Amino acid sequence: MCDAFALVCILLISGCIGQNPSGATTNNAVYTASEKISDVQKIEVLHFHGTHQCYSCITVGDYAEETVNTFFSEELKSGMIVFAHINGELPENSEMVTKYGVTGSSLWIGVYDKNGFHKEENTRVWYKISDKGEYMNYLAGIIEKRLNGDIG
Asked: Sheet holding 106-113: strands in order across?
């Protein structure tokens, strides 16, 4: 018991576990492209939206972008994770809309691995926009699973 308490104290003091200013729990030991243990080659986190967006549509995209920037900055730099806001109404984005099967404002995660391309729409984020910390922790957990090869 004492050893476990000491380990938690060391982790807290060293900054491995803490909270960022948004209130979202962070884990500085997040996966990096060089440390990945799965066959995942790349992940796309894409916020599709229309030209005119409501508060909820904007919030889903903004929180997703902040989540990726906060928890996965190294993966963004390396290109392992890509984030984008994509206006699905613009003709130049029609290929991505078709690839993902987008029908409206949505958040999609695309995973490229040795078996090809896997896509998923995450609808649960819509129910979490009233609590930014919960949203960010939830989405970060999903992205971490995908990085580990858990395609869901």
From this structure: 81-87, 42-49, 106-113, 116-121
* C-alpha to C-alpha distance for 140 and 145, rounded to whole angstroms: 9
Q: Where are the domains of the chain?
A: 2-147
Tens digit of each residue's pLDDT (9 = 90 or more) over 25-77: 444 334 344 344 579 999 999 999 999 999 999 999 999 999 999 999 999 99
User: By C-alpha distance, which of 84, 85, 98 is closest to 57?
Assistant: 85
Residue whose C-alpha is closest to residue 140's, from 58, 66, 36, 62: 66
Check whether domain 2-147 has CATH 3.90.550.10, yes or no: no
